Amino acid sequence: MSSRNSYRKVTCLTLVALFLSAASVMNSPNENRICEVTIDVGETTAFPNTTNNVIPITIDNPVDTIVGFQLWIQLDRPPDFVIFQTDTFLEFDTTHWRCNAYSGPNCIDSTLVPFDSVWDFFHIDTFEVERANIDTAGTLIAGWEFLVAQSLALNGTDLLITGIADLPGGPITPGFAPQSGGTLINMLADVLDVSDTVTNRIANLIINTVFIPNFNIVLADPGWSPWAFETYWDTIGWICTDWLIDTTQNPPDTIDCLSWQHTSIPPWDSIEVVLDSIASLDTSRICITDGSLEVLLSYICGDANGDGTPGNILDLTFLVDRIFRGGPPSDPPEAADFNCDGFYGNILDLTIIVDFVFRGGDPLCSAPECSK
Ligand SMILES: [Ca+2]
Ligand SMILES: [Ca+2]
């Protein structure tokens, strides 16, 4: 195979790498089958300049208990519209190393090893992460032992949420049993000062299912996978960038390759044939529905008739017309919620505006609930 007239040596290698640990669980497609897990981000609305707007993610898992998940939710707009609240935290990562070779007191070759194995030295790296606030109260994962949400984009336009029901040691925390329509988690988003003149008022909330490491649903059945794998043979070319040369020969001969570089086009010095796989969501097992957040037009609390002036006789007349004569609702209805109790333009709100206009009562929208 070698040529004495060349510094190149061609070796044909056939290496088979198996990346198929999960392929064996792949099911044949069946469009009629009910999804074993369904995740729905849903559609939410919020007003400008509001904080902690709840965006629920609901889940159906009719087949098995869920004990872990990882979801990466991405907004399709820049961070001047809607953002997830994040705070910057400093994290530490300790890695342990075993020294393979010393030059005097200095280690010149080392290998990363698990922390619980024999190691010679360690590194502590620090890095910043953007942690997000999320709400698990009343959700299916309340009480789970590990839950982290962070913005990989570092600006609040995405959330990578990782939840694990039970960590090693301590009490055993089960996942949630088969159910339908429960809330997996409540994301909290802030809507910024979006002008009423902005016409496209929707931010889509997209679950990233392309980047495999950031999407996973873990069922109690250890063999269950949301992924289907399609396998294929891939030919990879390698070119040698550093030959070990026997200069005692005439002409010099190549002995071995010291450094290889991947190349996609010939010429190459070696070929590797690899059994590779492409992963895609197994839609017979898992169904995903992305969501959206629509930013509503702003309004003035107390301006029931929408003329720009709150709390006068015209607003009172508008509300009387609405309640007693079937007139139109306020636009948006929240404008007629004078006590901010979540009920729009009812008899209680009418009482408040009558009291204010005719009896010098408290101004509209002055309840503590209105200042949130
Ligand atoms: Ca008005
Ligand atoms: Ca009310």
Structure described in brief:
It contains two helices and 20 strands. It has 372 residues and is mainly beta.
Task: Give an overview in words.
The chain is elongated. The model is unreliable at 1-30 (pLDDT under 50). The protein is mainly beta and 372 residues long. Strands 3, 5, 11, 12, 14, 15 and 20 form a 7-stranded mixed sheet that branches. The chain folds into 3 domains: 23-85 and 133-228 and 282-295, Sandwich (Immunoglobulin-like), CATH 2.60.40; 89-126, no CATH class; 313-371, no CATH class. Strand 11 and strand 12 form a beta hairpin. The protein has 2 helices and 20 strands. It has helices at 313-325, 347-359; strands spanning 11-12, 37-40, 43-46, 50-60, 66-75, 82-84, 86-103, 106-113, 121-132, 134-135, 146-150, 158-164, 182-191, 202-207, 216-219, 227-246, 253-263, 270-281, 286-289, 291-295. Helix 1 (313-325) packs antiparallel against helix 2 (347-359). 7% of the residues lie in helices and 42% in strands. One calcium ion binds at residues 337-339, 341, 343, 346, 348-349.
**What distance lies between the first and last C-alpha atoms, to the nearest angstrom?**
78 Å
Which percent band covers the strand fraction? 35-45%
Helix content: under 10%
Rg, nearest Å: 31 Å
Chain-wise SSE layout:
Elements: E1 11-12, E2 37-40, E3 43-46, E4 50-60, E5 66-75, E6 82-84, E7 86-103, E8 106-113, E9 121-132, E10 134-135, E11 146-150, E12 158-164, E13 182-191, E14 202-207, E15 216-219, E16 227-246, E17 253-263, E18 270-281, E19 286-289, E20 291-295, H1 313-325, H2 347-359
Parallel strand pairs: 1-18, 2-19, 3-20
Antiparallel strand pairs: 2-4, 4-13, 5-12, 5-14, 5-15, 6-13, 7-8, 7-9, 10-13, 11-12, 14-20, 16-17, 16-18
Helix pairs in contact: 1-2
Bound molecules: calcium ion (CA) (2 copies).
